[in-house]
């Protein structure tokens, strides 16, 4: 007799309540399952119930359509015994999972590092439908695809009984064969132990499966030890680093001991007390016949002996200190003897105060090149900066003139004046100019404003640079030369200063009282 109920899941009274899904099974799968003994899923007492899982509602924008679960619609005023009586097994065992840890050994060929590798697995057994899944924790640089080892499914026993694996087949310190892989179980979680105690099959204690060569040599993290001496050596080699003792640097900065030494010719030895470094300079004299070479030994710490240990293994006591330099005894520098002839007054005073040693004065002073007086400086032609042009007179390869940096930073102030030509020419007597004086570099800029229909081009009249005041012995202009009402001559042009802006008046009132 045909049923009047719609053939939909949940509306047919004759269907099995514990049937988890209603998917169609392919013919190939049916052919494989013909001889398998489909036993009903066995129910087990669980150690503790799972809490009611309320799904998150973050993606549900309408409060009338919220995501729900089966547990949220269970009756509230019904006893627990009657509640479990009518629940199917897949509801009772929902989210009850047994977790085991296991491993198997896999042979590794053509490798000098290892002969085998221990691959550790995590086995999840779902009591809901007696299926299982296997995952393998990922290891860095293992060279093996890891992660999902076996997707969730029912697995047949390997004994040919045509039955699926059940919880009774999992025992710690025993092997279980899954699709040809023999896995030795060595651990399980606390919930799994409580589950087996409830069914009267207590699990054996856990054990350590050990480590293979790959995990021992590759996965063990190397903790480097800080070598401060090597770090300081490398920093100084690259031109950086810091003084070991900050107090030594602050107390002895710019204090240098000067010795006059001799080794086939005369040299000057400088010992820097700030960082205990030494340099040797060659004394060059005119017409000596020798190629002038300024530095015999660049500034560095001088070792006591020619051979040193590896970088980072040489300590402070291996280098020469001031007490090692004594008059009358040769100073051996890289297997070369230097005889000390004397020192300067500061070095003598230092040895008397520090070591109570009387160091004699004397020695050949460095050759001071005489200033050439036959250089004739031609007058400036007005093109460019005069200081920049003088560089070509004193040096074959000129250097740019140095600027006063602090004056440039502290005096970012401009003084502006209104001026006119001091002339009787009718075409120039009405021309108005703005003279700007820059305090940061003492330069002047003359600018002519726009006058419509004047026939005279406006804009920059004189370039910004330093100009000389012919009324003050050709010295460069200073703020005291620019007084309102006076006449100034700038680059041959006579200007009459008429007025200045409010800032300039305030600046003159504060600085010239």
What is the CA-based Rg, rounded?
A: 49 Å
Q: Portion of residues in helices?
A: 10-25%
State the helix count.
11
The total of beta strands comes to 20
Major sheet size, sense and barrel closure: 6 strands, antiparallel
The CATH C-level name of one domain is Mainly Beta
List unreliable stretches of 5+ residues: none
Biggest sheet strand order reads 4-3-2-1-6-5
Molecular structure report:
The chain is 16% helix and 25% strand. The mean pLDDT is 82. A 6-stranded antiparallel sheet has the order 4-3-2-1-6-5, covered by helices on one side. A 6-stranded antiparallel sheet has the order 10-9-8-7-12-11. Strands 16-15-14-13-20-19 form a 6-stranded antiparallel sheet. Among the domains are: 93-218, PH-domain like; 253-308 and 318-355, PH-domain like; 405-511, PH-domain like (Roll). It contains 11 helices and 20 strands.
Compact overview of the structure:
This protein has 513 residues and is α+β, with helices and mostly antiparallel strands. Helices cover 16% and strands 25% of the residues.
Task: Note the topology.
Elements: H1 27-32, H2 80-85, H3 89-92, E1 97-107, E2 116-126, E3 131-136, E4 147-153, E5 175-178, E6 181-188, H4 190-198, H5 213-217, H6 228-237, H7 246-252, E7 256-263, E8 265-272, E9 277-282, E10 295-300, E11 331-333, E12 336-343, H8 345-354, H9 386-394, H10 405-410, E13 414-421, E14 432-438, E15 443-448, E16 459-465, E17 468-469, E18 475-476, E19 487-490, E20 493-500, H11 502-511
Antiparallel strand pairs: 1-2, 1-6, 2-3, 3-4, 5-6, 7-8, 7-12, 8-9, 9-10, 11-12, 13-14, 13-20, 14-15, 15-16, 17-18, 19-20
């Amino acid at each position: 007799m045909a049923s009047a109920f719609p053939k939909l899941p949940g509306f047919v009274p004759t269907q099995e309540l514990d049937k988890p899904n209603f998917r169609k099974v392919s013919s190939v799968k049916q052919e494989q399952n013909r001889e398998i003994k489909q036993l009903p899923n066995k129910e087990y007492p669980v150690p503790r119930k799972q809490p009611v899982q309320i799904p998150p509602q973050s993606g549900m924008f309408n409060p009338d359509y919220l995501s729900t679960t089966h547990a949220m619609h269970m009756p509230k005023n019904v006893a627990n015994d009657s509640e479990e009586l009518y629940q199917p097994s897949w509801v009772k065992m929902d989210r009850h999972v047994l977790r085991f840890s296991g491993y198997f050994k896999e042979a590794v060929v053509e490798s000098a590092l290892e002969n085998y590798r221990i691959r550790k697995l995590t086995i999840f057994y779902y009591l809901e439908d007696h299926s299982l899944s296997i995952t393998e924790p990922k290891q860095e640089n293992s060279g093996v695809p890891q992660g999902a080892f076996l997707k969730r499914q029912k697995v047949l026993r390997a004994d040919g009984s045509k039955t699926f694996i059940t919880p009774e087949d999992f025992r710690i310190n025993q092997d279980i064969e899954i699709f040809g892989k023999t896995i030795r179980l060595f651990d399980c979680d606390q919930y799994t132990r409580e589950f087996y105690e409830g069914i009267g099959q207590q699990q054996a204690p856990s054990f350590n499966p050990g480590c293979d060569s790959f995990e021992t040599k590759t996965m063990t993290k190397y903790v480097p030890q800080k070598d401060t001496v090597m770090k300081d050596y490398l920093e100084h080699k690259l031109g950086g680093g810091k003084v070991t003792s900050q107090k030594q640097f602050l107390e002895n900065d710019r204090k240098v001991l000067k010795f006059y030494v001799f080794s086939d010719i005369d040299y000057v030895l400088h010992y820097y007390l700030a960082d205990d470094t030494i340099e040797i300079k060659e004394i060059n004299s005119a017409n000596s016949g020798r190629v002038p070479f300024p530095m015999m030994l660049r500034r560095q710490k001088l070792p006591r002996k020619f051979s040193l240990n590896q970088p980072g293994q040489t300590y402070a006591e291996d280098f020469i200190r001031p007490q090692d330099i004594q008059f009358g005894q040769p100073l051996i520098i890289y297997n070369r003897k230097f005889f000390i002839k004397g020192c300067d007054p500061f070095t003598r005073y230092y040895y008397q105060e520090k070591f109570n040693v009387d160091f004699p004065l004397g020695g050949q002073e460095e050759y001071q090149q005489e200033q050439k007086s036959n250089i004739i400086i031609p007058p400036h032609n007005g093109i460019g900066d005069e200081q920049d042009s003088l560089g070509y007179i004193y040096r074959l390869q000129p250097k740019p003139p140095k600027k006063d940096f602090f004056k440039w930073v502290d005096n970012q102030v401009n003084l502006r004046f209104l001026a006119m030509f001091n002339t009787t020419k009718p075409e120039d007597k009405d021309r108005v100019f703005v003279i700007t004086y820059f305090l940061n570099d003492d330069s002047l800029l003359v600018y002519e404003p726009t006058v419509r229909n004047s026939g005279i081009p406006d804009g920059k009249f004189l370039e910004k640079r330093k100009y000389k005041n012919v009324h003050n012995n050709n010295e460069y202009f200073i703020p005291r030369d620019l007084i309102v009402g006076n006449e100034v001559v700038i680059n041959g042009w006579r200007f009459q200063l008429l007025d200045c802006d409010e800032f300039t008046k305030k600046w003159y009132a504060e600085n010239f009282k």
